[in-house]
Design a protein that fits this description.
The protein is an alpha+beta fold. It is built from 3 helices and 6 strands, in the order H-H-E-H-E-E-E-E-E.
């Protein structure tokens, strides 16, 4: 179907409005994704080194905004059912989560969700 020349600008505007409406609100507002500022680090703590592991820590990489992060703990590749929540201030020392290895095997933490606390 061909549009009359007088209706083409209206059709173009309508298509642009529909595309904008389909864009997530965060992208429209230009907000940052909080998950991209969640970082893990490692430290050689004696209790962990004895188990041939390292201390796993979490911290906030954002220069000015505090984060709330929800984590799941996994042990030997299986979800343990353990969940935790941490509030991380920018520039603060990393928060210790636990050793990368327990007496029975490898453990890790995965980010489930993150949000800026000042954006509630």
């Amino acid at each position: 179907m061909t549009l009359a020349p007088s209706l083409r600008p209206l059709a173009t505007a309508l298509a642009a409005a529909l595309a904008l409406a389909a864009t997530p609100a965060r992208a429209q507002a230009g907000e940052e994704d909080p998950k991209q500022f969640v970082a893990f680090s490692e430290d050689f703590e004696a209790v962990c080194v004895e188990r041939e592991g390292v201390m796993i820590q979490i911290y906030n990489k954002h220069p000015s905004r505090p984060l709330r992060v929800w984590l799941e703990r996994w042990h030997m590749g299986a979800f343990t059912g353990d969940r935790s929540k941490s509030d991380l201030k920018p520039g603060a020392e990393p928060e210790k989560l636990g050793c990368s290895r327990t007496l029975t095997g490898k453990q890790e933490w995965r980010v489930v969700r993150a949000q800026f606390i000042d954006a509630q």
